[in-house]
Design brief:
Elements lengths: L2 H14 L3 H20 L10 H10 L5 H17 L16
């Protein structure tokens, strides 16, 4: 099963509960992360790791801090749904220099 399909399956149950609009947005962010990870070579949830998250943040440096935080919450929810230990890396705040 492809990575995007695995995330879609996990996110389906997640979307069914709670605030629907927010959950749909989070699901879309999870799928965007999965698409990015698949483009960098991940084929399943077991292959996802911190390096994929860091690469995602590096390619999305232009995100506003609040938007990046929303993306991190979605990745964190995916991490929990996938049964991964710990938390995914947080985005670094933009440097002011």
């Amino acid at each position: 099963m492809k990575l995007q399909q695995q995330v879609q399956t996990l996110a389906h149950g997640y979307t069914r509960k709670g605030g629907k609009d927010n959950r749909r947005q989070q699901r879309a962010r999870m799928l965007a992360f999965a698409e990015h990870a698949a483009a960098s070579g991940a084929h399943s949830l077991g292959q996802l790791g911190k390096a994929h998250v860091i690469a995602y943040w590096k390619s999305h440096r232009e995100l506003a801090p609040t938007t990046a935080y929303s993306h991190w919450l979605a990745i964190k929810a995916l991490w929990r749904l996938a049964g991964k230990a710990g938390e995914p890396p947080r985005p670094r705040p933009p440097s002011t220099c």
